Amino acid sequence: MSAINDPNDVARAIVAAHAARFGETGDRPGSFSSEDAVYRGAKTACAALGFIEVDAECLSRAWQAQTLRTGAFDAQAWPEHPADFGMRPFPPSARADAFPPCPEKLGLYAVLPDGAWVGRMARAGVPTVQLRFKSGDADAVKREVHAAVEAVRGTGALLFINDHWQAAIEARAYGLHLGQEDLDALAPQELQAIRDSGLRLGVSTHGYAEMVRADAVSPSYLAMGAVYPTTLKQMATAPQGVARLAVYARLMRGYPQVGIGGVDARRLPEVLATGVGSVAVVRALVAEADPEAAAARLMKAMEA
User: Fewest C-beta atoms under 10 Å: which of 107, 187, 212, 238?
Assistant: First the structure.
């Protein structure tokens, strides 16, 4: 590999190559711990391009690994090889610890507040539904999860339960969806119990570091967002935008992928153009006067 001595040259080259894609060129140098010029330059560039510290660190290490693997630094070549991020070989579904597979394209994915809404959208033909029922009452959670499972029976809709993994196992739901905090809170034996139950597992991610963390458990699919600003929940990171979603989709191409966060009918085409196979919506259905008609329009747009 030819010597690269000036991290500032590396940083300038990366920013010049990718600033138009990510729309940020501010000079925000990171903190460095390595003497390697590619790592240091990439860290500065990723910070200037607007990536948070944990993702800038993940990306700069990947750029360093890519340069070592290929034998040359290429400012144009945004890292998108799983091995450069320390991930195991793809496809993840071939791993011994992989969760059961789900369809590569989950289609329109409706995130819904209760069992009644789940049944309503399942009967409207929405192919994938998620029950996101927020309650600290364990009995109420059980009732709602069982109601949702019954509500999709005979419709063909795939039902994922958000967070409540014990109830999901008991009710024999199709799958489970976990956020990063939920995943981190599981003891190894609890994660194994979920795997042994046969539930499909989806995991929320909000950038490179969280995608790498999710990949460690080989889930059935990844949700990526928030793509656009959303008022439905407090987000730890800024909206990712479609440019970042596109590079995430290329890196994690071994997984079924769901774009989520602020997506509506107007934004749907540009989200699908990133390469994700599915799009999750909340307000684009539950806030509509005629949710069934809204679902039909969104599904037609996805088919187009």
Answer: 187
The answer for residues whose C-beta is within 8 angstroms of residue 2's C-beta and 6 or more apart is 72
Same domain? 177 vs 54: no
pLDDT digits (tens, 9 = 90+) for 98-143: 999 999 999 999 999 999 999 999 999 999 999 999 999 999 999 9
Q: What is the model's pTM? A: 0.92
Statement to judge: residues 166 and 282 lie in one domain: yes
Q: What is the pLDDT of residue 21?
A: 86
- One-letter amino acid of 112: L
Tokens 């607007």 found at: 50
253: its two tokens:
């191409």
Same domain, 177 and 65: no
The whole-angstrom separation of Cα 241 and Cα 224 is 10
Task: Print the domain residue range for 12.
Answer: 7-79
Residue 119, classified by CB atoms within 10 Å of its CB into exposed (0-12), middle (13-18) or buried (19+), is buried
CATH code at position 113: 3.20.20.70
Residue 136 lies in a domain: yes
Are 257 and 90 in contact by the 8 Å Cβ rule? The answer is no
